Amino acid sequence: MVTFLPTRPGRLADVPSFDRAIGGAESNLACALAAAGHAVRWVSRVGADGFGDHLLETVGAYGVDVSYVGRDPGRPTGVYFRTAGDRATDAHEVAYYRAGSAASAMSAATVDLAAVRAGRILHLSGITAALSEGCLGLLRELTASAGGGPPVVSFDVNYRAGLWTGSDGAEVLLELARRADIVFVGEDEAELAWGVTGGPSAVRELLPEPEVLVVKQGAAGATAFVSAAARWGLVAQFPAPLKGRYGRPPSPAAGSRAAGGTPSGGGTLPAPVSVPTPRPQLTGTFEPAPAVDVVATVGAGDGFAAGFLSGVLRGLPLRQTLRLGHLFAAAALTTPADLAPPPDRDTTDRLTALDAGAWERLRLGPGWTEADAAEEEERTP
Q1: Global pTM?
Q2: What angle do CA 332, 35, 342 make, to 5 degrees?
Q3: Which of 37, 116, 191, 309 lies deepest, with the highest CB count within 10 Å?
Q4: Strand ranges for the chain from DSSP E
Q5: If we measure between CA atoms, which residue out of 115, 106, 105, 79 comes closest to residue 94?
């Protein structure tokens, strides 16, 4: 969607002008991954209007392949307006105008499924599932093959109660999550959607199927559960790269693919083997988040997912992968817009390699994504 950010604090009724930007869970993630050096394809639909032009030009400028984004002459590009306050407060207002939008008309019949499935990782969001029956049918089609071959299906639950007209939204999202390979869910949204309390292990008991489950715990950090059959060499204590049941990996020269995209630099998949359905691993790996001077929370979840998937594509150890998610989230948290480019790879590599004490002392504020600022933050006691 095209987003309109207020030029000053206050109620929507009182704000006289807005700055135009872009937003949307999948496009936010695609842009962040492309900015981090991965090759990414964004598959969606926008209107044949000026806002659609703006979206394609802006997302494409990040290096994202937008050649498979459809243009709908009969439906507009979705837009939304929001106030400047934190979305978590009662004073925050968001006005969505996407009913009947081009994106809401996506379905298995209007999207090039081959283009979507061409990558190493296919990332989906629960927000899209809520837009229309066609969108939900598309996500069910795309998750039906999860666990059976490339691409790896990544799913961010993104539960937004206000988007679901019926009472079955939570059940639908649970169904889709159980069919995905990598799942991101907040501890708070798991309680809101499914009534799960008792911490990350309780969420894992509800979701034993995903090979990788990441439970986000707000400012505290995140816990990742990796099954014994996972396809990525994420867990350093295993003596060899983890083996899965999936198709032949590309050669190292071919690189990796992200979010339905084209090859990019990173690790390679291990050779496929047949494995039984794993039991859920109820002891996860927790990694604290650095302290962050928050400007706005919008887009932080998309940033975390982008950072984590970047670590997966690069074949990083699990703790570094979690830290990369935290750093990408911090980039979004310290800017007012929905989308924030991540810091450069040298900066993230230096920060993810900090010892535990230095990582816990790390504090990130506005402007930290510039290399000099990040180095200074690293020295902050």
Answers
A1: 0.83
A2: 30
A3: 309
A4: 2-6, 18-22, 45-47, 70-72, 79-82, 94-97, 121-125, 152-156, 182-186, 212-216, 221-226, 256-257, 263-264, 285-288, 291-292, 363-364
A5: 79
